[in-house]
Amino acid sequence: MPSEGSSINPFETAKKQVDIVCDLIGINGGIREMLKHPKRELSVNFPVRMDDGSYRVFSGFRVQYNMARGPCKGGIRYHPNVSLDEVRALAAWMTWKCAVVNLPYGGAKGGVICDPKHMSQGELERMTRRYASEIAPLIGPEMDIPAPDVYTDSQTMAWIMDTYSVLKGYSVPGVITGKPISLGGSEGRGEATGRGCAYVIREAAPHSKVKVKGASVAVQGFGNAGSVAAKILQEEQGAKIVAVSDTRGGIYNPAGLSVAAVEAHKKKTGSVVGFAGTKPLTHDELLAMDVDILIPAALENQITGKNAHAIRAKIVAEAANGPTTPEADQILYDRKITVLPDVLANAGGVTVSYFEWAQDIQGFFWTLKEVNDRLERVMVRSYGEVHAEAMQRKVHNRTAAYVVAIQRVVDAIKMRGIYP
Ligand code: GLU
Question: Measured in angstroms, how far is the CA atom of residue 194 from the centroid of ligand 1?
Fold first, then answer.
């Protein structure tokens, strides 16, 4: 990943984004301060027995940013670079994301500082269960509902659901989303982030003079969000995926890559690198490719003031959270590059999480078609609202999405009033 990004504090970015919108729509005083502070934060340090018999202390967080509109919602991230400020930023972005797509939720996020690539399944399970029991007082179907994020998956969610249920003494499927179908997970949740991103790209393309059929696409990050977005763009919309990357590097083939074949290669070798018939690419080269659509689907701070001038895509669709800094946003806007911001472009994941929670609470489950049709309606409507706001105010899509979101959150805060 580009090194200049790592020094940027994502929570400073998150607060700057709020200020830009509060200046624009005239929100000041105490309400602005509320929007720039997390409501509740829990830091936990806990021991885990490792396979060699030793004990290691891990540190983790759960930040509940704002719950004016409903219970908190947001994923849990496992990564060596997790920090409290990163989790705060991600929790803030979840608040705006849920409001942009109008889910009855506030925002939260969790994280554990760890390197899951160098831990066994047993170590991961024990760490997950202990972290779940440490944050158990804060979570629950009516309070805060976690979900997967970077390097956590449906197995992680199953362990958390089980741990929480054992503590309660009965099964509580609605405490977490992104679960396996056998535990009350939803059809379509696994690919919802990528699918939602593909719907938003489809809606935005005509406004950016891009035809998705035949369009060239580069994807940074071939995880759950990036690989599924690529697959759906290729298989359902006829786009040509020319470059993809993961932590080990990128690959390029101007004639187009079969996403399914790259997936199979990654499953076998652990990386996209070395896929037959491709040229290697660095991370910086991938971001600067002359493509129609660029999908950053990895981590924060990838497109910054330093490299925004080098971006050549017509559309940047943020499947990742926080890949573009405010400085880069302005540069891309001035260069007439359409940015589909994270809080909209990757909101498909939390939208189907909401569907999963609603199904769990009712104990009544939907078909894949029902899930995908409802997801499509939410993404199309939300893109339309954000686009209309951007046109009317002559601002870029991130600011427009934040206007929609922050107005909804502020309305809820004002209607509830301040206690006491
Ligand atoms: N981690 C995902 C996100 O950043 C999903 C959150 C959820 O489903 O609650 O949007």
Answer: 12
Q: Which among 289, 334, 336, 284 has a CA at the least distance from the CA of 306?
A: 284
Q: Any residues with CB less than 8 A from the CB of 170 and at least 6 apart, and which?
A: none
Which amino acid, residue 149?
Answer: D
Q: Pick the residue whose CA is nearest to atom 9 on ligand 1.
A: 74
Q: What is the DSSP string of 298-316?
A: S-S--B-TTTGGG---SEE
CATH number of 40-183: 3.40.50.10860
Q: What angle do CA 289, 313, 11 make, to 5 degrees?
A: 100
pLDDT, tens digit (0-9, with 9 covering 90-100), for 107-156: 999 999 999 999 999 999 999 999 999 999 999 999 999 999 999 999 99
What distance in angstroms lies between residue 326's CA and the mean position of ligand 1's atoms? 22
Which residue type occupies 282? Answer: T
What is the C-alpha R_g of the chain?
A: 20
Which residues is 73 bridged to in the sheet? 107, 145
Domain ranges across the chain: 40-183, 192-345
- The catalytic residue among 109, 179, 231, 314 is 109
Share of the chain above pLDDT 70, in %: 99
Predicted TM-score of the model (pTM)? 0.97
Q: How many CB atoms lie within 10 A of CB 211?
A: 12
**3 state SS of 123:** helix
Average pLDDT, the chain: 97
pLDDT of 100 above 90: yes
CATH architecture of 192-345: 3-Layer(aba) Sandwich (3.40)
Cα-based torsion angle of the residue sequence 49, 53, 57, 61 in order, rounded to the nearest 10 degrees: -30
Residue 145, token pair as written in the block: 């509902």
Cβ burial of 83 (10 Å; 0-12, 13-18, 19+) is middle
| Phi, psi angle pair for 78, to nearest 5° | -110, 115
Task: Please state, in angstroms and rounded to a whole number, the distance separating the CA atoms of residues 150 and 162.
Answer: 21
Question: In angstroms, what is the span from residue 150 Cα to ligand 1's centroid?
Answer: 10
Measured CA to CA, the distance from residue 222 to residue 203 in angstroms comes to 23
- Looking at residue 7, its pLDDT comes to 80
